[in-house]
From TrEMBL:
The chain crosses the membrane at residues 62-85, 105-127, 134-152, 158-179, 191-213, 225-244, 265-286, 298-319, 326-347, 353-377. This is Major facilitator superfamily (MFS) profile domain-containing protein. It comes from Colletotrichum melonis. It is a multi-pass membrane protein. Belongs to the major facilitator superfamily. Monocarboxylate porter (TC 2.A.1.13) family.
Length: 443
């Protein structure tokens, strides 16, 4: 079996010498590793050692695909629930938290999302050092307990405490789900990231329907216990299937943020901040346009956006393995900009069917940024550093993105910028049109 052969230069053997400059080699048989062998430690180019925990093949086999299923299971009740948690806010305003303003209630949701990304950096470093088991097990317990507490909460501070705990534990779960993909996939990393992040879009669809049905047909405690059972089922599946392939045994300090000394990583992190800001703008403006076209209930509009986001994460993810993740990111950026300029700004306020088309296309474009960004980060680092790179990137992105989201949620800045840009672009005599027009006509 040629897979068990190791090539050794003859110059390294004491009894033989090379007879020509072509450096002939001797072939020796490598002993087969037993299944119970302890994890081996190999030296990496850095100051760390890498512990190889599994020798199963990458890009296929039970090990890789089972880990992918586990990562997707983590994304459904975390990222998926984040996209639909606004339904909680509407229900609270009508029931338990009626005396509180919408701004006060929105702080619960905002802090939940802010903590879920801010703490990705520390949890990413812990993932690289200790592996997922020591993170996902306590995080699953805390996250599940938080939503169990939500079922029996009735006051503002109780909801705030529960969602703070949920945000902290969600950071550990999502970082693990994305980082462990880099351990098990290489040539199919884009497709795997697309499937994993699609769990967020799929979770958005699932919880949109479940939350809408349960809050209308059951009392709050019963409805929340149903949510709790669904969350526990997905998280238990993730805990059972998620396992690492390599670990980093750090010789120096554990809290190493050396990734910020790489300009490629820093520049790409700021580009991800721009992508997230576009996503926040889309979320904030779609309900505004729904009121303009008198759509009424925006539930189905957000549902169409989530469906488009699901397709946007897996389809471009497949092509990242063919033409490269950075090339796909550029193409999807062009597609999203074209959707905004040609479809949204020009016809988004004309009819409801057009707005549904805008929602699907925007979901497809902005959803692709989630999977391609994670794939690009995987290309910028070694597998044993994936937790640090992905976690630190999303920690910075969340720190810069959520204040921007708060500004855009006010509506004043987004409305002013949209109206100004639309008027400047659509006026035939404007300088912007005169500059763009001849170039397009010349082509």
């Amino acid at each position: 079996d040629l897979t068990d052969l190791t090539y050794v230069p003859l110059s390294r053997l004491p009894s033989l010498r090379p007879v020509s400059h072509s450096s002939p080699v001797a072939i020796t048989r490598r002993p087969t590793l037993p299944q119970t062998q302890q994890p081996s430690t190999v030296h990496h180019a850095s100051n760390d050692q890498v512990k190889v925990l599994s020798r199963e093949p990458v890009d296929g086999g039970w090990g890789a695909w089972s880990v992918l299923v586990g990562s997707t299971a983590f994304m459904i009740p975390t990222f998926g629930l984040m996209t639909t948690v606004g339904i909680f806010q509407v229900y609270w305003k009508e029931n338990q938290l009626a005396p509180w303003s919408n701004t006060d209630i929105s702080w619960i949701i905002s802090i939940f999302g802010f903590l879920s990304v801010l703490l990705c950096g520390p949890f990413g470093i812990l993932f690289d050092t200790f592996g997922p088991r020591w993170l996902v097990t306590p995080a699953t317990i805390v996250y599940s307990a938080a939503f169990l507490g939500v079922a029996f909460s009735s006051q503002y501070w109780q909801f705030m405490v529960c969602f703070c705990a949920a945000g902290i534990s969600a950071a550990a779960l999502t970082t693990t789900a994305l980082a462990v993909i880099n351990h098990w996939f290489d040539d199919k990393k884009g497709l795997a990231m697309g499937i994993c992040t699609m769990g967020g879009g799929l979770g958005g669809v699932i919880f949109s329907v479940v939350l809408r049905f349960t809050t209308k047909n059951f009392e709050w405690t019963t409805a929340s216990l149903i949510h709790f059972a669904i969350i526990c089922a997905f998280l238990s599946l993730g805990c059972a299937l998620t396992r690492p392939r390599v670990l980093k045994a750090r010789k120096g300090k554990m809290w190493d943020f050396a990734c910020f000394r790489r300009w490629k990583f820093v520049l790409f992190t700021f580009s991800v901040c721009g992508f997230e800001l576009v996503l926040f703008v889309a979320w904030g403006l779609l309900p505004t346009y729904a009121r303009i076209v008198k759509l009424g209930d925006v539930f189905y509009l957000i549902l169409v956006f989530s469906v488009g986001s699901s397709f946007g994460r897996i389809v471009p993810g497949y092509f990242t393995d063919k033409i490269g993740p950075f090339n796909v990111t550029i193409l999807m950026t062009i597609f999203t900009e074209a959707t905004m300029l040609v479809l949204w700004l020009a016809f988004g306020d004309t009819s409801a069917p057009t707005l549904y088309a805008v929602a699907f296309c925007l979901g497809f474009g902005t959803g692709s940024f989630v999977s391609t960004a994670a794939t690009c980060l995987g290309r910028l680092c070694d597998p044993q550093d994936s937790g640090t790179y992905i976690g630190c990137c999303y920690a910075v992105t969340g720190s810069l993105g959520y204040p921007g989201e708060a500004l855009f949620q006010r509506g004043w800045l987004t409305t002013a910028l949209t109206i100004w840009f639309k008027e400047r672009l659509m006026q035939p005599s404007s300088k912007m049109t005169c500059r763009i027009g001849p170039k397009v006509a010349g082509r």
